[in-house]
Design a protein that fits this description.
Structural class: alpha+beta
Number of helices: 11
Radius of gyration: 27 Å
Length: about 475
Amino acid sequence: MAVAAVILKPWTPEFRHGGLTIAAPPAPAIVSPEVEPAPDTAPAPSAAGVATALGPVVASPDLGGFAGSVTDAASGTVLWSERADEPRVPSSTAKIMTTAAALLTLPADQRVHTKVVAGSAPNEIVLVAAGDPTLTAQPGGQGYYPGAGSLLDLAAQVRNADIRADTVVVDTSVYSGQTMARGWDPIDIPGGSIAPLESVMLDGGRLDPAGEYSPRSGTPALDVGRRLATELGLDPAKVRIGTAPQGTKRLGEVASAPLRDRLRDMMVYSDNVLAETIGREVAQATGRPMSFEGAAAAVAAVLAENAFDMTGVTMFDCSGLSVDDRIPARLLNQIITTAAGSEPDPETTTAPAPLAPPLGAGAGRQAQPEPAAATLTSRLVPMLDYLPVAGGTGSLSSRYVTQNQGGAGWVRAKTGTLSVASTLAGYVLDRDGRVLTFTLMSSDRPPEVSRPALDAVATTLRNCGCS
């Protein structure tokens, strides 16, 4: 029988590692991520080049009834359009109008305050709602919306005020009119897309504060009053809707996150409740009723006053949830193009530098000196940062992942989805380093069919060397 023998050699440092030596550690890597502007020398695309590139994808039957517009952001030149003046169901791309109106009207740090005051009767306290749907009763303020005011904090302030009361009144009178807009389907309340529009809610009316599409409450304002009563050790059955007396003692107050954060959340996650309540803030700022009609009229008026062509626009809400809303692709694209650097009035427009890529990949913020007085572009440019990133964030996080991967990280766009229409509006850096804005509107196809077809159009623009 053969026996294998192992002969041990005298110990050496290399022997411990099988004859290998340990290399010196590498120098630490220094990562300095930055966003670089698109090159000023990027060639301008031609209308013929864009039309040639888009021809096969816009002919897809999966788009159904289709309309769209594509613009060179630097010059404001419309490169391609199809039925762009035809009013179409915008679905959630209507939030582009609401965001633009808010940016043009309201301060970025505006917050909505919810107060509790003493009631007209000694046994009453009144929760005065001002239009904040983001209030939360979750411990540590960790509700659905980051930075939301805490109902638990509000209750603690009331307890510290040492007032004797057994009834909570909820004053929702700041809002007027109906709580559901024309063209809304009540099934969307249990479906998680909306709650009846009342002037205070917990976590946007969600029954599950952690669920984006959690079923919503049908009585969101009363829910807040009942939770406040519970926290104060009062009977929730004694909560009612009423009005606050004038000049009464304030017992507590909490505030929402600033407008800039609420706009971001509204656009990234396509939050209908936030869109409607922010629309009412625009109405209030312009002296209109805080109602569906007042908010829609306010948004339209603000845009018209800033030289946007509102021809063909019919809006019954500020979120795009109504199937009766109509907006032409031309208008949505004009708003995004203006934010990206081209003013609507050609007599006052100068060609700005191209935009910077987002997340190191796509198009981003305008690289230009801050003007002495705010231009329309400088006021709207924050909108570009609110748009979801293809394959990365919000309502685009699950798209451009298994299909149309060439647009992932490059396309930034607001989505829109209803059973009757799918839309996509945003911007992208093409292969030549030029920023293109686009609005794409599809109808008569189910979303699972039309959305990949829309994504294919945007991805084609990304891959376009269309000069």
